[in-house]
Amino acid sequence: MNIILLGPPGAGKGTQAKKISENCSLPHISTGDILRENISNNTPLGVKAKSYMSRGELVPDELLITIIKERLSRSDCSGGFMLDGYPRTIPQVDALQMILTESGRKMDVVLNIDVDDEELIKRLSGRRMCACGTSYHVDFNPPEKEGFCDSCKGKLYQREDDRAEAIRNRLIVYKKQTQPLINYYTKKALLRRIDGSKDISAIFEGIKKVLENYD
């Protein structure tokens, strides 16, 4: 089974990706993880990617496509895979389709975790961080003492990009980027909407129900 996972910031995509990967025994393929792996291993692709990232530039499509193609050719993907963070644009969709066609495979389903904007803002704006790396949420995972970390007793802070206005801007950018993909995969009858407004377990049950049709 070959899956693409879509979802806006705050939708819990990372949590659900881990659950899907474990439940379906599929490799979770994240472009961010692949880039970090190549850079860490100092591969030729990693060196090229780092040259762009170090200048604050986006890694160009042709390089990302090469990296994705190499990753999908590994043996652990022979029984299927789950893509997270790729494709992000229609040219990347076309490139992915070409990779799959060349290897005699096809995309089975595109899962889109859908959450109302106001709920996403509530989730993300309630996040609090500590310098030690521990994170909290004022509603869902509060510290024992308000404003202070349970682990190191350090003072908690709110990231600039977790403020409501910044989150709204992030969602605008996400929708602008992702809507063409949603339209494309809807026309191909591959898109399945997942209600992301529920709790983690309920969301995953919804995903499992969809995936039962692709076993």
Question: Which descriptors would you attach to this protein?
Answer:
single chain, Rossmann fold, alpha/beta, 215 residues
- Look up the CATH topology: Rossmann fold
Approximately what portion of the residues adopt beta-strand conformation?
5-15%
Sequence of strands across the biggest β-sheet: 2-3-1-4-7
The H/E string reads EHEHHHEHEHEEHEH
The tally of strands reads 7
Global outline: globular
Low-confidence runs (pLDDT<50, min 5 residues)? none
User: Mean pLDDT, nearest integer?
Assistant: 91
Structure commentary:
The protein has 215 residues and is of the alpha/beta class. It has a single domain, classed as Rossmann fold. The chain is 47% helix and 13% strand. It contains 8 helices and 7 strands. The protein has helices at residues 13-24, 31-40, 44-53, 61-72, 90-102, 117-125, 164-187, 200-211; strands spanning 2-6, 28-30, 81-84, 109-114, 127-129, 135-137, 191-195. A 5-stranded parallel β-sheet has the order 2-3-1-4-7, with helices on both faces. Strand 5 (127-129) and strand 6 form a beta hairpin. The radius of gyration is 19 Å and the shape is globular. The termini are close together.
